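I would love for you to help me understand the pair of lines that follows before we discuss the fold together.
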Amino acid sequence: MAFEWKQDAQSAQLWNNHQLILTIPAQDGCQDTFEPLENGAWRWRRHTDRPVQEMRMLVCRPDPLGYWQVPAVNYNGNGWGSGAQYGGYALNGTPWTYAWHRVAIPACTYAEDGHWAVSLFGEEKGGMSGSVWEQEGHACQALLWPEQEGPKVLFKRCWMDPFQGEMEPCQDFTAILHVTPVRELHRAYHDLLDFAWRYFERPVQMQWQPEQLVKLDTLYFRQLWQRCFDGVTGFQAGMHWVESEAAFVKSKNFEIGWVGQNASVACTLLRQYIQTGDEDLKNKALSVLDSWVRYAVLPNGLMFVKLVADPSHLDSVINGDIPMELDACNLGTAATYFFKAAKLAKEAGVDRPAYAKTAFGLCDFALRAQKPSGEFAKSWFIDGAVSSPHGSVGAFFCLPLFDAWRLSGQQKYLDAALRSVDFYCEEFERSGVTTAGALDSFCIDKESAAPVLRAALTAYHITGDVKYLTYAEDVAYYLATWQWHYSTHFPDGSMAKAIGYDTYGSTAVSAAHNAQDFYGLYYVPEYLELARLTGKDSWRSRARALWYNGTQLISDGTLVINGRVRPAGSQDESVRHTRWGRPDQRIFVSSEWLVNWPGSFRQVALDRIDNWDELR
């Protein structure tokens, strides 16, 4: 494309074939230059005649603001869900500003008008903030120094006062501009993501080899196994520090999927038993699976998704935490791994038909509950009545329906699976987001996209229909908007800097929860598969970055953080990499909740990836 910069005393303008794309107003005492990086991308340098302590690098468009995005934070105004999150592009007429480290590309804003998509972001060294808004019918984007956030700052389920940083006097400022034609379904942001990944990409050095991770994760799973007073048995969701005991202790919560991952962890131990012959692994796995079948399965095919004690003890105070709401994430995960558990148990020389029966019961409920459109509810009550009707998280039920079809040969399961994949993929193509997968919030998020991606690729392999490959790559790009393209330079004295945490490759949780976690481990196999299917090596590079990030902060039994020796195989659930957290306002810290699900995701990924050399 033939781009041309024109500059005069009033502004710098970018043109393409006599069409004005953007205008950069001149600023007194400043000289602007534009260094070409590749076609449609420039490094914009601004030099001031004298040192200054604030700067605003402004881009104006001739047309109104169309679709826009602040990657991992604000998707066209975040018009779905509830709770505290950035809504619209302004609050009471004042545009939101976002610190560079809150955004997946430093301080990045992406904005479409009728013809062009323009992205503006900063360098990895940070220190700036980004903003996007509409003013008098014109789309505007800006980078601002020093770092600032407002008019309020999002924390967990609450808001804090605006932040205004300070800076040493400076004469040189840099921004990156990327311009690409608007494409259908807002796919122009794919071009931004590909460019930004090339711009910031670097080789990664894995701290742990896959074989070491198998041992560490398996060891931690053993430690989390527990049998309760009444026989209920499971893997605790993790460990947390109890000051009065001066120790990490098990969190009192068995969950079949999501945070607790009891079903998938049991499958991991069965696989390890088959490979090693370690009877303790088999016994622990079977005791947990048997416990869930005995205590959690309901007559209508549903099951409790959390347990702390025998549900028949209704007068027990301890059962006050048993949820009456059963979500698709947990139920779909349970069905997937009970199918796998039945197969693994047989390979281990133990016949457990109840495992497959449990999985088929859940799938049969899904058939009855599925809407004609193909959609599943987000959650149900124990009697099967719908609790929450909508959310992309329902896609977790697509996956076991494919398994039910393979095992039974019954077309009804395949028809339901494909109908649901079509629904969730087409819904995504219309809205550009997925929703309600992060169960501790109700908003646009990353987690709900993961089963949509996996289901689309599964449908592609079964049907050969290329539309599913297109769906899969579109969803993968959306997931990439949540992935950090750079390393945040944390402030001196912060815990995140002290422990050496690297944001590169990590992913933020949701529009409401602007912390990072290791959930990207879930779809490492899908990114590697997309690299093979599309020939785009960027998917392989992104997968390796996800793996690199998701294997940080794992203890070998000697790791000390915050003066506390961590159990072998343990790992934080999340890191507050930005100005986000609880009302205690502790930021740039790790969670210090040592959950089992990242290890579970790693072991599921290793089971699904044939060539471990891609992760070394």
Notes: The first strand starts at residue 3 and ends at 7. The mean pLDDT is 96.
